[in-house]
Queue: 2 jobs
Job 1
Amino acid sequence: MRDDDVLGALLAGDDPNEGRAATVERTSAIEALPPASREWGEIDARSDSPRWGMLVDTERCIGCWSCAVICRSENDVALGMWWNRILTGGDDLDTPSVDEHGQMSMDWLPLACQHCDDAPCEKVCPTAATYTNDEGVVLVDVDKCIGCRYCMAACPYGVRVFNWGEPEKATGVEEGMVHARPVGTVEKCSLCVHRLAEGQEPSCVVSCPAQARIFGDLNAADSHINRLIQDRGGDQLLETKGTEPKVRYLPPRRRRSL
Amino acid sequence: MTTIAPPTTPTSPAATGRRGPRWAWYAVLAIGLAIGLFSFGYQLTAGLEVTGLTNTVTWGLYIVLFMFLVGVSAGGLIVVAGSELVGSHRLDSLNLLAVIVSGTAVAAAAVSIIPDLGRPFMAWQMMVSPQVMSPLVWDMVVISVYLAIAGIDLWILTRPKPMAKWLRVMAMVTLPVAVLVHSITAWIFGFLVARPFWNTAILAPLFISSALVSGTAFVLVVAWIVRRVTSWRPPHHVFADLGKLLAWFVAVDFFLLVAELVTAFTSQTDYHLAPLEMLFTGRQAPLFWGQLVFGVLLPFLVYANPRLRSRTKLLVAAAVLSILGVFAKRVNILMPGMYEPQINLPPGQSGNATGQAFTLDLLYVPTWVEYGVVIGIGAFAATLITLGVRRWVLPQAGSDDAVVEEQEDREP
């Protein structure tokens, strides 16, 4: 999938992306710009028909917001909107939570779209703008979105954000690897579907300094993500809602006590 | 207004056709429509960020108004169809007015969803790319059918020759569709597992009972106003009849609400209790208790007491309270559902404006734009009712020259 000789091609003055655009699937939600050259973050073993999933190791997460910030620039998320947030169990981002025994601990819950197998947002969308692609990624087709925000009411995780006004950028220009979404539409994490098409992991995964995010193909039995889920489990958020998220969370094996 | 007036009273000031008040009323309507159009136009250019809505409270006043207007539309058609099917003709004189009110309310409901859309000009996508699992698509279909039924009923009722048989056929179609239109509107909310307060089987029956209360009360109020300002004279007993019906509707509506609240409360689970706390002691408490006292209890005392309900002005005041009470109830259904996200941890969700910090518990306060649009939709409904009354009701009252004046806009 990945052109290994990207660097060589660059040095030779060739366009390393030549011929690659054809492999980019049409992801009408997030219309991919011409793929950039990337040297790291190649996707772990994948089957013929991948079903992408993510595992967040809450034991490793240090609550640094790197994933949240790179998500913004990768996906050209406008000011005031977040596809990816880091929630905390304490009263505030920098305060620990205290249990009934007075024991303090710092916990974080990185939260973005859970890419549910049975996505409530997809079921209620009146125009089929929200859909699940062949690889299990829940996407929004902005061309169909009428901005009714029914999906936002339906999502138990509260991970969708709306373009309330004209999207504003810190630099005033489009800066991400995908086109910006117009005012009046809903958007959310796309698992960096434009990167997946290039055989690259989502940018939050490669940017995590603690390597707390593990990405991979849930259909490939020997993928790193599946081995970890077998070894250590993997909780689904709000499991009782029956949404079957493809994002799972590894609980800490020991408390980070203060 | 306790005396029974003869069908036409040539000496009444209304029938003499004073022009002043009529044009004043038209001016009020025009100003209301202008306010609505201006607010909506401003919102179109700026986006929904000029509303008080946020990424947490994504639905607000527009959706409340939508729920409310769908409910109001129940009154007329059910009065016509219901009394037709049980073979009662006591309310026949109200048929035409009731159908006009119903048709207007459902048209206004359809209009009220438009300003809530982020991209209203893309709404045609619902026709070309409908997703049949979505209750919103079902609602679009059933509201269209309902509007068509109101139109056909109007056509039948305005034929020179009575078409009693067809009215009966229509009644058989109307009632199931009326049940559907309120159920589906309820299911828009009730199907969402993300909102425990909405995700309850009682929501559809509750929407039907609330619809009956607000719809019947609305017909009563409009009938009273039209009677006051024009030469139209329904038999006087219709008001007390509607009041008697309302006693039942209010009682059932209250019972269903209590059944839901008691069940949720006794569960003692957090996700059921959080919205209840908001209603009983929290942010919505004034509106909740106010609704129960002024929107349910006081009107019920008037409806249930034959002496009180025969005093028409008191009855109308009770009906106005009922209408406001049902509106408050819609707010009290929507807001706890929106305010209590399933995952509500610091730092919370972002608002709706650039630079706005994360907030855990953002208060939703509608802006002047939202109020302006609501005023516009109210004026739109009042215009339709005014025109409908002038065009169809008054000719049957035997006076083309009658005046519709100072018809108060009862939309809250």
Job 2
Amino acid sequence: MSDGQRSGEDDPARASEGAVLLVEGLVRRFGDLTAVDGVGLRIEAGQTYGLLGPNGAGKTTTISMIAGLLPADAGTISVLGRPMGPREVEVKHHIGLVPQDLAIYPELTARENLAFFGRLQGMRGRQLIERIDEVLDLIALSDRADDATKDYSGGMKRRLNIAVGLIHRPALLILDEPTVGVDPQSRNAILRSVEALSGEGMAVLYTTHYMEEAARLCDRIGIIDSGRIRAEGTRSELITLIGGVDTIRLTGAGPVEESAEALRLLEAVDKVGVEGRCLTLTVHDAPTTVAQVVTTAARTGLALDEVEIVRPDLESVFLHLTGKALRD
Amino acid sequence: MRPVLVIAGVELRRLQRDRSNYFFVLVLPLLLVLVIGAQFSDDSNGRVAVAGGESTLRENLVRALRADDVEVTVASPQTVREKVARGRADVGIIVSPQAARAFATQGDLEFTLIPGVRSDSPALLHRARSVLSRLTVQSGQLAALTDRGMSREAARSALADAAQSLRRPTLEVVDVDESAQEFSGLGQFDVGARGQTLLFVFVTALSGASALIRTRRLGVLSRTLTAPVSARQVFAGQALGRFAVATFQAVYIVLLTAVLFGADWGSPGPVLLVLLLFSAVAAGTSLLIGTVADSDTVASGLGIGLGLVLAALGGGMIPLELFGSTLRSVAHLTPHAWAYDALAQIRGHGAGVLDVLPELAVLAVMALALLSLGTWTLRRSTARGL
């Protein structure tokens, strides 16, 4: 079979066509522990891919291999169609890594830190100076650019940490839990920057254990646990995986057990659980069911204090897939 | 090569940014060279403080002492007593107004001499006595000639001619003490400058070990590995940074002690070669400590401790010439002793590169071994930290 006749799956060049990052069957072992077990993912330009999982799920090991810091025991990584690994120096020009640690020199200023990493990327002269100014504007640190970073707030350091990853305009930006320990204001600023970068066509690989961030930023999400991708897709695709089940919680005074019996008879209700004064109902479409539920409960004499609708989210998906919560 | 220089450059900048280094790197070494230099006697034949009002006798006395290479200060009688009591002068001479008048009229002279406490004060006292005696004899000779009808100018001229025609005896002083022979011809600051250079080059380089630990712990080292540079370049940059810091310290002390204190180091080429190799040894040791120590506090303590012990053992604090033969053999387990020997030969015996080749070879082997080991451990600890 000639090259032109190969299927996309057999031909790495075609499989990676259009992909900024293509990872297939990635494995990394530390002794007896398999930290990453057959991870695969694909990110295209302008796409943000979220790797969502709890601490110890294998997120950082995965991105360490993608960034060329760790060799993989098995599997392939290609960036813009070129193989990537610790010895592949030239491909690193296309990758910007923002590690979870604040990997900047505290004795140096923001400008000096950016200049250092820019020079390592081969930038120099006017091109470097102009790019440093651009990046400082992007992270809103221009007015503190010449202060030593040890005097910065945690949020400012986080922003600079991101800026270092952007200095050389990489095609792929990898952010490893960039909002850990950050105040809400800085967190919001970081998320806005990531949205802007994605909007400019940068491919972003974003690891987090905050489902709200994954939900807000990511076009596609991979749910990772114990080194394996358990599920992958858009947010709504993932929610569909657990059947789109909603929850209605009723809290009130009166004949709780009697109300539960009456509610179980409703066609829209799947399950009813009772815990003290609280009834938890599993339904298929809460917004259209809630009126009928409230009327039935009232008819049985239950005086309602509170009605709450809980719609499925990525947390529920994670719980459904792994049997544990994201923050475990 | 460029990434290596970029990484080394940032290490130098970090050293410059840490203001606590200003004192330890720039001020303290020179201060210690100054203090140690003050312990060695200078080229003068002692210090004499002279008191007394302005008079021909005082002027002649000061001039005659200075002609004998004696350092002379003129002060009030009270100050002279204080200077001698506090060791700021080795001998005090008080010229009373009566003595000044008696000198002018060839009367009987009476001086007050105050001996100091230093071991060479008696010799200087004797020198002062002989100068005073020479002055009174000259005064008597002048009076005798003028009494016989010669004019003062003619008498002075005749005495000067007579003094010039005298054949002064030539004295050769031979010292049988080996240590004294080793130090013979050295300037006041030469030994101190040599020892302090070796001490501070090592201590300053080792203080870079804690900076390396911070670089590792912050994740900056890992991050540099994600740039389009090879691991070899990153580790070479770290080693070069430490080497540059050590070399800066060496060149700084050598230049400043030469300019400020007139320390004589000998031929610059061989001196530079010795210091470059010694700096490479220090850089390798710094890399090694920076990777085997767990925290920057441990590295800092270990660096200073090791720096001081090696310097004490290797001639950085007490000159190697004063060591017994056994201790001197032990001292040569340290790079300091090899560098000290080489620098001593270059300064004391005008040695060139070929003359100190064995010392240079030992330093080169030590540098190669420590840099290789340091780079290997750094690579290993970085891989473990990922």
